[in-house]
Specification:
Elements lengths: L23 E3 L2 E6 L6 E5 L6 E4 L1 E8 L2 E9 L6 E15 L4 E13 L2 E11 L8 E3 L1 H4 L3 E3 L9
Parallel strand pairs: 1-11, 3-10, 4-9
Antiparallel strand pairs: 2-3, 2-8, 4-10, 5-6, 6-7, 7-8, 8-9
Length: 157
Amino acid sequence: MSPNKTPEIVPAVEVKRPVENSLNIIGAVEPIYLLPMKAPIVARVDTGAETCSIDADNIKAFERDGEKWVAFDVINRKNGEKYHFEKKVIKTTEIKRLHQHEKRYVVSMDVKLGQEIITNVRFNLAKRDKFEYQALIGRNILTGRAMVDTSRSNTLN
């Protein structure tokens, strides 16, 4: 370039950064509120489970207006809070385990996960008292909403 010429200004190359993912990263164990309960229960995040599952006591099927309903209790293991639910049965599903098959009722529940209230989430009702966690968070909540980092826990507190 000659000494009398002004250097040409070349616009900077725009560096495209990856679009920030709008999905939250959650851990392997997270608190979940079963509304209208006041305190969260501890749930295991299970990307292998299609549907969420909840520890339910005193499960009793009944009929209301010609439709199948179920009554059940959820007792928070941390603080003893007990809530009685009556929900319309969406379907009955069969859970296949190694040596047994178990039929479970599936109901629709409203939950709070982090700051988000999610309505009409399908949960199957199970006796989970022998399991460490009272609930499983399945893909029906996770899909399009959260990514899981199994090295983390309680990110939603």
